[in-house]
Amino acid sequence: MASFVIEGGHKLHGEIHPQGAKNEVLQILCATLLTSEEVTVTNIPDILDVNNLIQLLRDMGVKVSKTGIDSYTFKADTVDLNYLESDEFLKKCSSLRGSVMLVGPLVARFGKALISKPGGDKIGRRRLDTHFIGIQKLGACFNYDEERSVFSICAEHLEGTYMLLDEASVTGTANIVMASVLAKGKTTIYNAACEPYLQQLCRMLNRMGAKISGIASNLLTIEGVESLHGCTHRVLPDMIEVGSFIGMAAMTGSELTIKNVSHENLGIIPESFRRLGIRVEQRGDDLFIPEQEHYQIESFIDGSIMTIADAPWPGLTPDLLSVVLVVATQAKGSVLIHQKMFESRLFFVDKLIDMGAQIILCDPHRAVVIGHDRNFQLRAGNMISPDIRAGIALLIAAMSADGISRIHNIEQIDRGYQNIDQRLNALGARITRI
Ligand SMILES: CC(=O)N[C@H]1[C@@H](OP(=O)(O)OP(=O)(O)OC[C@H]2O[C@@H](n3ccc(=O)[nH]c3=O)[C@H](O)[C@@H]2O)O[C@H](CO)[C@@H](O)[C@@H]1O
Ligand SMILES: C=C(OP(=O)(O)O)C(=O)O
Known about the structure:
Layout: E1 3-7, E2 13-16, H1 22-31, E3 38-42, H2 48-59, E4 63-66, E5 72-75, H3 87-93, H4 103-110, E6 112-116, H5 129-137, E7 141-145, E8 150-154, E9 162-164, H6 170-180, E10 186-190, H7 196-207, E11 211-213, E12 219-223, E13 231-234, H8 239-251, E14 255-258, H9 269-274, E15 281-283, E16 286-289, E17 306-309, H10 321-328, E18 334-338, H11 349-354, E19 359-363, E20 366-370, E21 382-384, H12 388-400, E22 404-408, H13 411-414, H14 420-425, E23 431-433
Parallel strand pairs: 2-14, 3-13, 9-10, 17-18, 21-22
Antiparallel strand pairs: 1-22, 1-23, 3-5, 4-5, 6-8, 7-8, 10-12, 11-12, 14-16, 15-16, 18-20, 19-20
Helix pairs in contact: 1-2, 1-7, 4-6, 5-6, 6-7, 8-10, 8-12, 10-12
The structure holds uridine-diphosphate-N-acetylglucosamine and phosphoenolpyruvate.
């Protein structure tokens, strides 16, 4: 278990480039299975979850070549379907959440998919009903082997239909879209998730010959086609990284330029930080965060306390609430953080409370933060990172704290942030990996 040792209290200065988006690339990599032709993907981040999925594709027989620092080609002309039955495959699937999206493409192209309970952050119940009910509606059979925790899906052919999803699941929508592009006839998906990750996936599939309309809305219509062909796809900058850097700049009182953020795809993220009083200036496609000693949380128009809550896109992504929460600990004013989607994502606040933050955890979903307005600097701490986003929030807290902190289990941070220690040290942070 690797750790970070962080000397707090150093301001950052300069420019940082966000990596490619983790949650998009996981979808895109799975989609390469939908064609026997070559697919080129660029701006792939060098992070654990992505590297594990690339290795899994290789193990399945996909020809993978690294063609540049962040670009790869994939050619799934032969896929070893027997490998899907192996304990090795099933064990590897359970190391990351993104592996669940192998199901849609596999069942669409080869009529068969197996998957073990996928991994990912332990942040509460993460059910897969939406995925499997949707794929069953297309005509696939489904079985869950409780003893082995293995889901298996088979289909001689898939047929388009209308479906109203029980929730706008991000990976669930991606799975159903990837299954339906090769189904016979028309599929309509209502209450579809429409995060930029999904918009990107649908645009890529259309470049491969799919016929998807309604992109960026919650009503997708897909006319099935016989086969798909190769294409080139560039992954968007990671909006969660962009948000994490905004929070980091504010909390450490630093001036930072975040380069080439793809502003049109950030949705409500910049505005959510502005509501905490943080100045976020758009300069072309960059974001400039000026050095700010104080930032004051807005109240609602009626004077009541600000609430920041997650919601399916175009609402605020739940993946940024941990960062919003940590940044609020040094704001002027109070805010209610309401994590509606996940049940166990706020428990990390105990560690912030140990560091001196003023937080009341009301229940597993809600925490009230009373900002210090920098009248009190957080104390250094010794903590374990429970999940990716709590991990980055703790790193931000440690970078602003007085003294030397330690964060253990940083593999959780590495799952989602590329070389984060080196990139931040280049801006003036003092982080050592041990
Ligand atoms: C690999 C990947 O892409 N992971 C992301 C994906 O996970 P993932 O696709 O697994 O998450 P889902 O969108 O399925 O659901 C996330 C959670 O929100 C709940 N839920 C979802 C939709 C809804 O309308 N109402 C509701 O309550 C679900 O029950 C679940 O507890 O989307 C999540 C929600 O943005 C992000 O946190 C994850 O980073
Ligand atoms: C929850 C996350 O990831 P995953 O779905 O891969 O666990 C995340 O990226 O914040």
